[in-house]
Write a structure and sequence with these properties.
By secondary structure, this protein is mainly alpha-helical. It is 74% helix and 1% strand. The relative contact order is 0.19.
Length: 342
Amino acid sequence: MTETERAVDDAERAREQGRGRGRFGTLPGRLVRDELGVLLVLGLLITCIGIPYPDFLATDNLLSTAHNSVYISLMACGMVFALAMREVDLSVGGTYAMCLVVGALLVREGTAPWLAVPVVLITGTALGVFNALVTTLLALPSFIVTLGTLMLFRGVGLALADGKQITDLPLDDSFFTLAGGDAAGVPFALWVLLAVVVVLAVMLTRTRFGARVRAIGSNPDAAAFSGIPVVRTRIQALALSGLTTACAAALALAFYGAGDPTLGQGYELQAIAACIIGGTPLAGGRGSVVGAVAGAMILSVVAAGLVFFEVPINWTSFATGGVILVAVAADSALRRTGRRRR
């Protein structure tokens, strides 16, 4: 690390510490401040649906609704790092499908399911690195590159699966009964999501890597001039996006007990929407892992609420889009109010 880069990291750390000396001095306090808007919207949505339909507030239904958001949440957790440094990974839907197929094929061919998981994770990470290398070597926007690899990865998954769902898996194996079931009364996938959120939230806000991501997103030219390894950080960020997507694929394989190459369509846009709802701007410079998960939960709550309100399926996209706009507007207004008070 160069002296200049070290100085940038120290300045970034000092700035974050300076922000935290006021009313919200501790890390938990700062997280509450940053994610308060989206968490309030999430709570308001749940309350508004639960008042006319008390069954919505049943523990089983809430856990099911939260579980339905896990896959988008995991993708959004990794996407935060890409968006925070002005990159975008549109390939996560294709990565998800391809990793799901790879895992299912390995298990069907006799590989122990638990041993197939590392292969799935490595595959997703490698696809993320591939995105970063193509973006760097061809000097193209990641938006264009990942739009192409979205179709490329999905096509590979379809070809590997021969266009059919991969079944005949050993569903009595502990991988499917544990990872695809409950642990202490809570879906196992939610425990994994909680662990990922804690690790990545700390990584984004309290590590040198997170500081680099935010510095590059704030001003790429200045970051490069100061000696921050922009290319290496881009590779790491997109590799992380691929890794969290592969984690979602492994959990989906355990839950569904099959490998469907058609799964994941539209997940990339939902993951980006979850990040934006949660306070991660497309302009880069900052991001929120907790907010991204809350954003994904909002999308899941809206989808579940529409079922209770018996909204025709043709209006689902309209209602979801409207809620996204309201959530973003409410969070933006709360942030502006907070800045004026400070």
